[in-house]
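#onboarding

Welcome to the new folks! Below is a worked example of what a typical request in this channel looks like: someone posts a single protein sequence, and someone else replies with the predicted structure as tokens. Don't worry about understanding the tokens yet, we'll cover that in week two.

Example request:
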Amino acid sequence: MSLEEFKALGQKLAAHCRNYRDASLRRSLTQLFVTLGLFLGAFALTCWSLDVSYLLTLALAIPTGGLIVRLFIVQHDCGHGSFFKSAAANDWLGRGLSLFTVTPYHFWKRAHATHHAGCGNLEKRGVGDISTCTVKEYRALPLLSRLMYRLYRNPVVLFLISVPFHFAILQRLPFGQPLPARQIWRSILGLDLALVIVLGGMMYLIGAGTFLLVYLPVLATASIVGGWMFFVQHQFEEVYWERDGEWSFYLAGLLGSSYYVLPKAIQWLTGSIGLHHVHHLNSRIPNYRLQECLDASPELAAFPKKIRFLESLKCAPLALWDEDNRRLARFADAG
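Example response:
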């Protein structure tokens, strides 16, 4: 199929996706309260496990962190205006969920909208995405800059250090962000103040040591899982990247976003965000309708890059866009 045929297919499928934009108040509230209830119960259980074994605490931190990912998906939907029909309700809930996800809502909302508007566009990299050099750009870098980029894209550094550091620390700092300063300062520092009050209150109630022994592994789990999900949705070998004049929103959605096939329990925990091509074709679809939208169109399930978990691990070393061969490449391939 030619790119023009893919573009026409993308337009057709985007029209199909528009039929699934409407949020259901009942389903939204059910998802919110069930997820919040499960998270609070899991967090309490993880705190209790400290009296039994810290290995049990670390084990319980995994599903508890997974529930933060699910809360983040709700916050993500609020940012797209898709969780409630009311814009004000979306924003109030999005801000409230920041206390669980530690992600400043309005700052993230602006950055993520920029990501959607330019996903796969080589001229619009750098906001709301994972930094990616082309092979030619990488070769032109000074030696120290090349070494720093290789360190940044090392999977161990990226997922086990950089992503948790970004969520826990960098999101607390309003400096050097490529968005309007006034909004950034208000969003980030407002959340920082709220976190000091809420997390400080939790430490006062149950003890700082107890709280941190539970909270830090839970937050680390959530950030690593969330970071990996975001990575694999746009960092696979046959991904779509194009220069500004040739870039197409529909091709970016259909060919530049993966269909990450996960076990049903993990798909539930991650709010079906692995159906990422559907989400990029229409970001106003609530997460709980993504599967419904996919099931109603065999073409929507057939054409995007379908990635299963074991296959997705092969994406981790990919780090450079090879414009000549139109694929994401490893450092070894760049010479």
